[in-house]
Model the fold of this input.
Amino acid sequence: MTSKPKAIVFFDLDGTLLTRDVTVASSTIDAINHLYENNIMPIIATGRTVCEVQHIMQQAKINSIVAMNGQSVFYQGEHIFSNNIDKHVIERLVDFSKTQTNIPLAFYNDKIMRISELGEPAEIFYHYLKQSIPPVDNDIYRQEPIQMMLLLCQSGEEQYIKQFPELNFIRNTPYCVDVFNHGGSKAFGIKKLLENKGFLDVPTYAFGDGLNDIEMFKMVDHSIAMGNSVEPLKQLAEFITDDNNHHGIANALKKLGLI
Done:
């Protein structure tokens, strides 16, 4: 791989790079290997944090990531950027959840994941992700920088949107809402990466399926929606490939002439 890639391809994880059983299809791994051979850089762009997807990155042989919806960025293992939430804002949100909504929270940075309390919302969400429930520590934000929080709920985020204009609230699954600094997005993190590495002139592609991929689709040169994508994303896409369980990534990369 030369210092500047011929192109960059950003891959969302859940519903895109990952199949329904939360693994990377063999056809996708083969396609990623071909991208490297063609001097094209694959990069993960996800709502998840680095520490929870290390095994996926190893399986896919990808060591660059735009994590937590653009709030933390690594390129070939090098830390590029982090967008920490102000501790006073977190403190207000913690108090609002405790006194007004009773919605439990999760706290994320590159290295740790914590939750505010054990209970059914946490059990349902992490079972959905097929992950272990993180440890409980409702005061972690006092000791650690936090780049993203989660509202562990199936509804109710509207109350927060009015109270916290300095934050973005994006529903990423039926069981949680991603919370990060206003203006943050996968596109924001991608821009930081391209600027930092001098890659603004490199052609960019993105694969996604969810609402948190909308800004990314608007920013890159070529956008590809999975067959299982939500309708608003399909409407933005340059074209729609097969779904994540039927070789959608490999088939699209071939059609694009990237492999």
The CA atoms of residues 7 and 40 lie 5 Å apart. The longest helix spans residues 87-101. The mean pLDDT is 95. The longest strand covers residues 167-173.
